[in-house]
Model the fold of this input.
Amino acid sequence: MNRIHNFSSGPSCLPEEVLQEIREEMLDWHGSGMSVLEMPFSCPEYRAIAAAAERDLRALLEVPASHRILFLQGGAYAHFGILAMNLLTPGRGADYVVTGLWSERAAAEARRHGAVRIAASAAREGYRGIPPRESWQLDPAAAYCHLTTNETAHGVQFRELPNTGTVPLVADVTSDFLTRPIDVSRCGLLYASAQKNAGCAGLTILIVREAMLRDAADLASSVFDYRRQAGSNGCVNTPPTFSVYCAGLMFAWMRRNGGVPAFAQAAARRSACLYAVIDGSPLYRCPVDPAHRSQVNLCFRLPSGELEREFLDEAARHGLHHLEGHSAVGGIRVSLHNATPDSSVEALLAFMRDFAARRRAAA
Ligand SMILES: *Cc1c(COP(=O)(O)O)cnc(C)c1O
Done:
C-alpha cells in the first residue's frame, strides 16, 4: 500500500485507523450479519450507530442540552438556502458578514429566500482579513447574523466568535469543525459538511438551539423543514446512514486521541511551523493578515504562475498532493485536518525549504 501525502481541502484525508475499521466492519457490522450500507435506518443497529455518533459529538464540543444535533443530507451549500428558508420568516431580515468565497455564496443563496443585508464585507480588500467588529452594521432586529468561521478558499479564520448581542449567531463551521473548541451555547445554529474534518461526503451536521426551531417557518418541503426534522430525529426521510457511521468513527477516534483540545494544539503548532517557513523565505508570500490567518487552510503565492506550476509538479513527484489553491483564488493551498499525519506535514516542510533553497542558489 502506497498512500500519498494528501493535503486536499475536502473530501480530505482520513486516519488510517478509521479506514481499517471501516474495512473490517464492511461486510458484517458487529455481528449483525449486514453491512452498515444495508441497514434500514429504523433498525436498532443503525439507531445505536447514530446515537453513539451524537453522544460522542456532544461530548467533543460540550454541546449543551439547549441545543439539538441533526444529521441531514444536502451539504453546507444546500443549507445556505435551506437555513434561510427556515429562519427568514416574513418581515425579518438577516445580517451576513462576508469574509471570503464561502460567506459570499451563503449570502447569495439566502438572498433568494428573504431580505439579506451585508453587515460587513472584506471583498474590496480581496479577502485578506476580517473587518473590525466596530465597523459592522448590525441590525438589532435581524433574525440572525451569519458568518463563516473559516474561509476554506481564502485562508481567513475568525480567532474567536464575535459578540452579536441578542441577535443569534449562525455559523458555517464546515472547514474548521472540531479543529478547536467553540462555545456552542453562544450560537443559534452551527452547520458543517462532514467531508472536511468529520468523515465522508453526504452528511451535513447541524447543531441548533431548540428555541430557534420554535420560531422557524413551516416549509412546503418536509425534508427541508428543520422543525419537522428535529421532531423525527433527522429521519423525515432516509438519513445519510453510511456518512453518519463514518462521522461516528471519526468522533470516537478524536475522543481516543485527546479530544478537541489536543487537535487544537496540533493545529496551532503545525500551522505555526508552516507560516514560519512561508514568512521566512522571499519566495513564498501569504497575503492574509497575520491576525486572521487560517490554521486549517494555509494559502500562499509564489512570484509567478509558472513557479507555482513548478512547485506543484515537483511536490507531486515527492508524493505531496492536492496543494493547488481553490480555482477561484489560485496559488497554493495547504489544508491541515485533524487526520493529517505529522509525517505529511514534515515532508511538506522539508520540501518547501529545499525548493526555496534551490531557487535561491539558481538566482
Ligand atoms: C466546502 C465548504 C462548503 C461546501 O460544502 P458542500 O458539502 O460542497 O456543500 C461550504 N462552506 C465551507 C466553509 C466549505 O469549506
Residues 10, 75-77, 102, 148, 152, 172, 174-175, 193, 196 surround pyridoxal-5'-phosphate (CB under 6 Å). Residues 357 and 363 are 10 Å apart (CA to CA). The chain has a mean pLDDT of 97. The longest strand covers residues 187-193.
